[in-house]
Design a protein that fits this description.
Elements (H helix, E strand, L loop, with lengths): L4 E3 L5 E6 L2 E6 L1 H17 L4 E6 L4 E7 L2 E2 L1 E2 L2 E3 L2 E3 L3 E2 L1 E4 L5 E6 L2 E8 L18 H7 L8 E2 L3 E2 L2 H15 L3 H23 L11 E5 L3 H12 L4 E2 L7 H7 L6
Parallel strand pairs: 1-3, 4-16, 16-17
Antiparallel strand pairs: 2-3, 4-5, 5-6, 5-11, 7-10, 8-9, 12-13, 14-15
């Protein structure tokens, strides 16, 4: 069996053994998303797109320019250079599970995450840390009666208790904590986008945003407002968009 290797930047790393030869993927998740965005650009006749992928632990940004995925010939992984073509991508530790806490008398969001288990307090699995998802529940942006994934009932009371712990330390009510935590998060997300645009002489207002991942669409409008972007595209099944994008990619040996 020949060696098939996919090298790309962002997401998680995995390896699978196949007939004594390794099949390796490096950060393939967000890359599937940006390939999917390229196909969306073609279908809606847009040339420039900011692709934002927000899941439980990270917020990943990549660009489509002139209808093409932005690539680079090498990148770093934990300080080590990797000489392989990859999608140019900025990733920050900010997702739906990012923990909201008091730190040094101020409000901090992330980089620690509640993970998938127990996860945000609103999952009702015993999690006690306030997270970005809990902030959205408190503000009604995730309605308490909504079933996540079709079967997970949100626990509003658990979110309230978790957010209240942070509020007591800062002398603020639940609504204020939730609003300010999301403002901090949206500022960080906008800064990540500026790293790929403004810092390279590109105007984000010339781009369309495509938001995907489990949490991306929930925050897209606020990021667009921060960057004065007028158009947002949200795939119908945003949580599975990266998998769909993988199917749009070319085979490479």
């Amino acid at each position: 069996v020949p060696l098939y290797i996919t090298q790309s930047n962002g997401g998680s790393m995995s390896s699978v053994q196949a007939s004594e030869k390794a099949v390796l993927t490096l950060f393939s998740g967000p890359v599937g998303g940006v390939v999917g965005c390229r196909e969306i650009c073609r279908s809606i006749h847009e040339e420039n797109m900011i692709c934002i992928d927000m899941g439980g632990t990270s917020f990943d940004v990549s660009l489509i320019r002139n209808g093409q995925v932005e690539l680079k010939s090498e990148f770093e992984l934990q300080g080590l250079p990797i000489l392989a073509p990859s999608v140019e991508l900025v990733s920050i530790a900010l997702g739906g599970g990012s923990i909201i806490k008091e730190f040094g008398g101020g409000l901090r969001v992330g980089p620690e995450s509640a993970g998938s288990f127990p996860g945000p307090a609103c999952y009702g699995r015993g999690g006690e840390n306030a997270t970005i998802t809990d902030a959205n529940v408190i503000l009604g942006r995730l309605p308490a009666e909504q079933l996540l994934g079709g079967n997970l009932k949100l626990d509003y009371v658990a979110s309230e208790l978790a957010i209240n712990k942070v509020g007591k330390r800062l002398g603020m009510n639940n609504i204020s904590i939730a609003e300010q935590a999301l403002e901090v998060a949206h500022f960080k997300m906008a800064q990540a986008i500026k790293e790929l645009t403004v810092e390279r002489g590109l105007d984000p207002r010339d781009f369309v945003i495509c938001a995907f991942g489990g949490a991306g669409p929930l925050h897209a409008a606020f990021i667009a407002e921060e960057l004065e972007i007028k158009k947002i595209v949200i795939p119908s099944v945003a949580g599975a968009f990266s998998a769909w994008g993988m199917l749009q990619g070319d085979l490479r040996h």
